[in-house]
Amino acid sequence: MKDKVVAIVPAAGLGRRFGPGTNKSFKTLMGKPLLLWALETLETVDEITEIIPVLREEDMEKGVELFEKSGLSKIKRIAPGGKERQDSVYNGLKQVGDNTGIVVIHDGVRPLVGKNLIRESIRQLRDCDGVIPGVPPKDTIKELKDSIVRRTLKRDSLWAVQTPQVFFYKILYATYEKAMMDGFYTTDDAAIVERYGGRVKVIMGSYNNIKITTPEDLLIAEFLLSKKWKVRNGK
Questions:
Q1: Residues of the chain under the 50 pLDDT cut
Q2: In 3D, which of 118, 114, 112 has the Cα closest to residue 30?
Q3: Angstrom distance (rounded) from CA 54 to CA 85
Q4: pLDDT of 10-37, one tens digit each?
Q5: Are 86 and 183 in contact (CB under 8 A)?
Q6: Longest dimension (CA), the chain
Q7: Model pTM?
Q8: CB 5 within 8 A of CB 46
Q9: How far is it, in rounded angstroms, from Cα 45 to Cα 59?
Q10: For an engineered disulfide with 102, which of 5, 17, 113, 213 has Cβ 3.0 to 4.6 Å away?
Q11: Around 227, how many Cα atoms within 13 Å sit in the side-chain half-sphere?
C-alpha cells in the first residue's frame, strides 16, 4: 500500500439510552472500554499508519490516559468532537496531513469489527471513490407515515451499511466541505460522497459487526465476544 492510510474513529456521541451525559464509547465491555476494542483492531492493520480518535473535550484527558496505558502506538493526536457525528468526522479530517491518500472512518462503538474486513475494504478501493461494508436485511422493511404502512420495500435491493467506510482522502474532504457549506447533514459518510456524484462500492460486511446503541447491544456483543474467545481457545 503506497498511500498513507489514516483511520478516523468518531467517539464523541452521547449515548442517551445509556443515561444522561453518558459517552457510551467508555462503557465497559468484558472488562475493557468499548472504544478500545475497535482501536486495538485498527492498530493491528498493517496498512493503517495513523489512528485519530475523535472525543468530546471533557473526555480528552481520560482518552489520553487510556491510550497511553494501552500502548496504542498509531495514535499521534486526538481530534475534538462536534455537535453531530458529521461535525466530529470533519474535525478529524482537518487533522489529517496532506500526504494522506486514504482515510478509514470507523465508529468507535463497533467493537467487533474484523481485521480482515478492514483490510478488504482498503484493498477494494479502486475504480471507485469509496468502499463500504453492508449486509442484506433479514427482516422485511416497511416505509411508514404516521404509523401507517405506505409501502413494503423489496429486500433484494436493500443493504444495511456499516463501518469501516474507506475513501480517497481528497475526495472525502472535498465533499465534506461542500456538505458543510450546503448545510447538508447525514449520519453516513458515504451519503456525502454519493450526494456530490461519487461512486461508492458495497462489499459484504458481517452481521456480527454490530453498533452499540442500547444496553441490550452490550449484552449481545459480550455473548459474541465470549463465543469467539471459546472458539480460539478450543472450548
A1: 1, 230-235
A2: 112
A3: 10
A4: 999 876 666 666 688 999 999 999 999 9
A5: no
A6: 54
A7: 0.93
A8: no
A9: 26
A10: 5
A11: 8
